[in-house]
């Protein structure tokens, strides 16, 4: 019993730590802190926060405003519940309020460093739970034009799908549309995709994506680079405008799998998206087989997996109609291909809102 309780306590503290590294909203952090303390934010939990969230490289990378907000909310909650706030937490918060950050990274309030840790469901102990860790620079201002540099639920869902069914993607050439921060590409590389091509039509998003690949020790493939050709940890980051791309531009690519997360966001863009999907799905005539855990993944030729949150029914209906007109089959496989939950600590992630579509050419 004691061992089980210790294991559960360690698990809850791990979730709290990973949530902090992932930049979860303060309300989610407080909920996890309460759970780790058995219903309240105890002195033990406060010490844990200080030990794991100050004086480290992670702390220097994190957005200073975020960390200060977390400490402020913790102090307020403990005081309101007539609990004891440890002196060290008061001191740390006071220093943050009085000092002016000298590090330019701390002064960047528009971007935030996050670590998204995917937890394996099979493990011997808490310390061996980590499956893959993605280090990302993400926008903290998604409502003012930085949507491409933000982390969206569909990219988390698609990443979980990749990690749940690695055999589908292993040894395959994978091409992602609207890659954003590059999380999906990191997971594709992890499961052994033979080639990973990430694309986006926004130059600032593309620049941030390349920085994220370097953060994860992935090489950005360049022309005539013999070193990169021999490297297994490589990706291509390409500019791709759906409106302007032509068949000749895509001639060099013959992807086995096309992916996309939250890319049905505007009815105006939908016809261009469907046109690009059609070109990529028709790129090569060779027959291939995609194997997975069920018949859902048995298909000849290239296939696309698109994860999306249906925020606007009109936009989604526009996509399904355009896809049908283009002789594309779009099947909802969300239930039959539900991925494992690799992110139990991300309370802000509503995986139930995401739909997964499998898209192929109609025979």
TrEMBL record:
Signal peptide residue numbers: none
Pfam families, per database record: Methyltransf_16
Domain of life, source organism: Eukaryota
Protein name in the entry: FAM86 N-terminal domain-containing protein
């Amino acid at each position: 019993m004691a061992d089980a309780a210790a294991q559960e306590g360690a698990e809850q503290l791990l979730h709290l730590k990973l949530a902090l590294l992932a930049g979860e909203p303060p309300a989610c952090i407080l909920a996890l802190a309460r759970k780790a303390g058995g219903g309240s934010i105890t002195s033990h939990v406060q010490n844990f926060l200080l030990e794991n969230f100050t004086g480290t490289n992670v702390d220097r990378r994190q957005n200073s405003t975020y960390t200060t907000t977390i400490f402020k909310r913790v102090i307020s909650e403990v005081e309101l519940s007539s609990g004891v706030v440890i002196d060290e937490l008061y001191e740390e918060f006071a220093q943050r309020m009085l000092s002016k950050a000298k590090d330019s990274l701390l002064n960047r309030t528009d971007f935030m460093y996050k670590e998204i840790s995917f937890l394996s469901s099979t493990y011997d102990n808490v310390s061996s739970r980590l499956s893959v860790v993605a280090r990302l620079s993400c926008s903290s201002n998604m409502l003012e034009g930085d949507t491409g540099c933000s982390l969206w639920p569909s990219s988390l869902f698609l990443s979980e799908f990749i990690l749940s069914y690695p055999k589908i993607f292993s040894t395959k050439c994978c091409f992602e549309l609207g890659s954003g921060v590059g999380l999906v590409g990191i997971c594709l590389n992890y499961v052994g995709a033979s080639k990973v091509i990430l694309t986006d039509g926004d130059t600032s998003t593309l620049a941030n994506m390349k920085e994220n690949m370097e953060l994860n020790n992935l090489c950005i493939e360049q022309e005539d680079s013999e070193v990169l050709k021999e490297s297994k940890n490589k990706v291509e980051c390409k500019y791709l405008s759906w409106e302007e791309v032509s068949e000749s531009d895509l001639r060099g690519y013959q992807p086995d799998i096309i992916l996309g997360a939250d890319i049905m966001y505007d009815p105006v863009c939908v016809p261009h998206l469907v046109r690009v999907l059609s070109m990529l799905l028709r790129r090569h005539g060779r027959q291939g087989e995609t194997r997975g855990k069920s018949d859902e993944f048995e298909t000849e030729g290239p296939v696309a997996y698109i994860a999306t949150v249906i925020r606007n029914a009109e936009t989604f209906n526009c996509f399904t109609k355009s896809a049908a007109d283009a002789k594309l089959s779009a099947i909802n496989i969300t239930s039959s291909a539900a991925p494992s939950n690799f992110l139990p600590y991300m309370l802000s992630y509503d995986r139930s809102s995401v739909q997964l579509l499998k898209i192929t050419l109609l025979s």
